[in-house]
From TrEMBL:
GO molecular function: uridine transmembrane transporter activity
Signal peptide: none
Transmembrane segments: 12-39, 80-103, 109-127, 139-165, 171-190, 202-223, 295-316, 328-345, 365-383, 395-416, 436-457
PANTHER family: EQUILIBRATIVE NUCLEOSIDE TRANSPORTER (PTHR10332), EQUILIBRATIVE NUCLEOSIDE TRANSPORTER 2 (PTHR10332:SF8)
Protein name according to UniProt: Equilibrative nucleoside transporter 2
One of the protein's GO biological processes: hypoxanthine transport
Record InterPro entries: ENT1/ENT2, Eqnu_transpt, MFS_trans_sf
Membrane topology according to the record: Multi-pass membrane protein
GO cellular component: basolateral plasma membrane
Keyword ATP-binding assigned: no
Family: Belongs to the SLC29A/ENT transporter (TC 2.A.57) family.
Length: 461
């Protein structure tokens, strides 16, 4: 709650920094998934070269074969990439919840960003290095593993840091995460339409996230020079003092006033709980179990949402091709209809939560509501995927894929952001940092569950 004498967020500097930091955390994942055609073509052409059958075909997309590779996907690239990106995210999010006590936040955040920058530079250099397909696959997978591991530490640490600011700033961070994919898709489209040779195009594409990560590092250090941010950091350092207690209690009462009768009852209960918890303690201890009991509906919602999304995106959706033979449309079909649409609608979905938070924090049916998104799994599996064994194509027309993608991504963005915004509303102020950490863990769990499921759905195709 802001008071008259609190410093203001001048020129929305902290808002913009949160947006850019959010963008920075998801650049690795988005730049790698959007470049799936480049990796697949490269694995394909390196295999051809080894068998003496090389043709200099386009690597960011191959228009001569309807935008997809004619080589069989022996490496199962999409699925491995999804899994090896999300598994370290889960493991390192867990790791971060232990190491945050011993490694200072500045070291974790700046260190991870520098490591991400170095790995992006390495990926850009790799574009120009010739090697056999197996070595290229191994090196790419190792890069994906490490870049996402650092990304997890970065994300966990930033979510923790943002809980010290009002909720609006967490929404901005989530919006920034949503923007990262759009940024990657636009970078891909720009480099593809530059007309340069395929290797130079890929190089230009991978240099973009290097610049993006560099800007994020600069923004992070700038945060410590903004009065508004420093005020909130210092407030958290004195949160065991009387000032904090008073402020907390006043805030609870205001919550009660704003929410009417039921809100007041809740505020009184919360007040009692806060008082009981603070007696004789320097810093209030927080029980994971107590917090989990309060936020389990939100946690389950985020696991289901990401579980469904990652089970088909991008492993299956990146395989859908246009039914038409028009060269230009085929080349741009997947980057536009899969990645650009997903990311724009995902971002819109996330941003809606800054205006509407429906259904509210007390709705128990939120997990069921988001589980209904499972319908998108068979719908995408029945779209125009040339490489399939068991199923046949039912939704041949490109329009079907576009319609499914719009609703799939809009609902993903909304049901990701909604529980992340509602969870802190269900706990006491001193429990919000633990809530942030727990929700980040469940977010990563959902992503890993989805990545695991994608192998099953791919096998069913
Ligand atoms: N918050 C968050 N979302 C992610 C991460 N990796 C993938 N996603 C989301 O997964 C979906 C598919 O890319 C998008 O909504 C992404 O924002 C991550 O590390 N953190």
């Amino acid at each position: 709650m802001s008071r008259k004498n609190d410093p203001q967020d001048k020129f929305h500097a902290v808002t913009i920094i949160c947006l850019i930091l959010g963008l920075g955390t998801l650049l690795p994942w988005n730049f790698f998934i959007t470049a799936i055609p480049y990796f697949q073509q490269r694995l394909c052409s390196e295999t051809h070269k080894l068998s003496g059958n090389h043709s200099e075909n386009s690597e960011l997309s191959d228009s001569s074969n309807n935008g997809t590779t004619k080589c069989r996907d022996d490496f199962n690239f999409n699925n491995w990439m999804t899994l090896l990106a999300q598994l370290p995210l889960l493991l390192c999010t867990l790791l971060n919840s232990f190491i945050y006590r011993w490694i200072p936040e500045k070291v974790r955040i700046a260190g991870s960003m520098l490591a991400i920058l170095s790995l992006f530079i390495f990926t850009a250099i790799l574009v120009k290095v010739e090697m056999d397909a197996q070595s290229f696959f191994d090196l790419t997978m190792a890069t994906i593993w490490f870049i996402n591991a650092f990304c997890a530490i970065l994300q966990g640490s930033l979510f923790g840091l943002l809980t010290l600011f009002p909720q609006h700033y967490s929404s901005m961070f989530l919006s920034g995460q949503g923007m990262a994919g759009t940024f990657a898709a636009l970078a891909m489209l720009l480099s593809m339409s530059s007309g340069a040779d395929p290797r130079t195009t890929a190089l230009g594409y991978f240099i973009t996230p290097c610049v993006g990560t560099f800007i994020s590092i600069t923004c992070y250090f700038l945060l410590y020079h903004v009065d508004f941010a420093n005020y909130h950091f210092s407030k958290s350092n004195t949160n065991s003092s009387k000032t904090y207690e008073l402020e907390t209690k006043t805030e609870l009462l205001h919550q009660g006033e704003e929410n009417g009768d039921a809100g007041q009852k809740k505020a009184v209960l919360l007040l009692k709980e806060a008082e009981a918890g603070s007696v004789g303690e320097e810093k209030q201890s927080v029980s994971l179990w107590t917090v989990l009991k309060k936020i389990w509906v939100m946690a389950l919602t985020i696991v289901i949402t990401f579980g469904v999304t990652l089970s088909v995106f991008p492993a299956i959706t990146a395989k859908v091709v246009s039914r038409y033979d028009h060269e230009g449309w085929c080349k741009f079909f997947n980057p536009v209809c899969c990645f650009l649409i997903f990311n724009i609608m995902d971002w819109i979905g996330r941003s809606i939560t800054s205006k509407i938070l429906w259904p509210g924090p007390d709705c128990k049916y939120l997990p069921l509501l988001t589980a209904s998104r499972f319908i998108f799994v068979p719908l995408f599996m029945l779209c125009n995927i040339p490489e399939r064994t068991y199923l046949s194509t039912f939704f041949l027309n490109d329009v079907w894929f576009i319609i499914f993608m719009i609703f799939f991504s809009l609902s993903n963005g909304y049901f990701v952001s909604l529980p992340m915004c509602l969870a802190p509303k269900k706990v006491l102020p001193h429990e919000s940092e633990t809530t942030g950490a727990l929700m980040t863990f469940f977010l990563a769990l959902g992503l890993s569950v989805g990545a695991g499921l994608s192998f099953g759905f791919k096998a069913l195709l």
